[in-house]
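[recover] target loaded
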């Protein structure tokens, strides 16, 4: 969360070809050392969040994770999101990206993201063109999330694994990349206020890590 989030900004014009061109120019597949190094704390630019992540790093083991940001290449592009099953131990019932913890058998964070997308919603790898990693994102559960931005060809068919997710749906990229839809909420963490993003869309409440990662995507692609 950098200073620009506090300013009123114009909506980013969304063109599918331009979005992917800008993404390819700004992203790569270099794995940040903070993914596994507890001494390197992902910075958010928010004092409350940075304080929380420092405490989490001292109290919990680092939990490397990977998610896929699947941008579907429609004429008006969309982002494919999921709703997690209500019985899961972390982030139960929340709106999320396809993804999960990185297993020792995964060749890379990218491989983990692709595997999880296929396991959770049946999104086949032949429809996915990975573009690059976004910034490392830390959570209060000790996860270090490395998102992979990817172009997804339309025409795929999903198969929902209800043990992990209960739904999958698409949200217009134009909505998610419009800073006017980036609400800033706050709550207390051990005596210090920490802020978080929320992007309500129709009956869907997109917040927490998912909204935070989408905000990082906006900043990297349109403000960098």
């Amino acid at each position: 969360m950098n200073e620009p989030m506090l300013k009123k900004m114009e909506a980013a014009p969304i063109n599918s070809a331009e979005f992917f061109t800008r993404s390819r120019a700004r992203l790569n597949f270099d794995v940040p050392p903070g993914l596994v190094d507890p001494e390197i704390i992902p910075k958010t630019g928010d004092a409350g969040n940075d304080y929380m992540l420092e405490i989490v790093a001292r109290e919990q083991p680092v939990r490397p994770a990977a998610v896929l940001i699947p941008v579907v290449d429609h004429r008006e592009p969309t982002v494919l999101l999921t709703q997690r099953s209500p019985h899961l131990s972390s982030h139960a019932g929340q709106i999320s990206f396809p993804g999960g913890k990185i297993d020792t058998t995964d060749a890379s964070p990218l491989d983990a993201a692709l595997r999880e997308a296929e396991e959770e919603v049946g999104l086949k790898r032949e429809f996915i063109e990975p573009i690059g990693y976004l910034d490392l994102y830390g959570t209060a559960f000790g996860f270090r999330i490395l998102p992979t931005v990817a172009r997804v060809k339309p025409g795929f068919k999903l198969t929902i694994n209800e043990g992990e997710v209960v739904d999958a749906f698409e949200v217009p990229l134009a909505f998610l990349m419009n800073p006017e839809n980036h609400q800033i909420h706050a709550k207390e963490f051990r005596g210090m206020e920490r802020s978080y993003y929320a992007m309500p869309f129709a009956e869907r409440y997109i917040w927490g890590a998912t909204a935070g990662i989408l905000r990082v995507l906006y900043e990297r692609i349109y403000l960098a």
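[recover] notes: The first strand starts at residue 63 and ends at 72.
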